[in-house]
Write a structure and sequence with these properties.
The protein is an all-alpha fold. Helices cover 57% and strands 0% of the residues. It has a single domain, classed as Non-ribosomal Peptide Synthetase Peptidyl Carrier Protein, Chain A (Orthogonal Bundle). It has helices spanning 3-18, 37-51, 68-86. Helix 1 (3-18) crosses helix 3 (68-86). It is globular, with a radius of gyration of 13 Å.
């Protein structure tokens, strides 16, 4: 899956959960109040369920979950890592 699809999926999820019409991919989702700490937990659950991944504590940082873009970057990096391990 490419970054664009991750961004679209996560944006749609957050728009549905927050009833916002628009959320910019680079918006700081915690700092701007789009989600609170409980919302982050729900977002992590969505990501793990939707993409069949298990995020580690080290991956769940304020920097990684700062924006939709940064979350999508994490997912792309995990996918690339899994792909390189599979081809090794």
């Amino acid at each position: 899956m490419d970054k664009r699809q991750y961004v679209e999926d996560i944006t749609n999820y957050l728009k549905e959960q927050t009833r916002r019409r628009e959320i910019a991919a680079d918006a700081l989702i915690l700092d701007s109040g789009i989600v609170d700490s409980f919302g982050v937990i729900e977002l992590v659950s969505f990501i793990e369920e939707r993409y069949k991944v298990q995020l580690s504590g080290a991956e769940m940082t304020g920097e990684t979950f700062a924006s939709i873009d940064s979350i999508a970057d994490l997912l792309v990096a995990r996918e690339n890592l899994a792909g390189s391990k599979a081809s090794a």
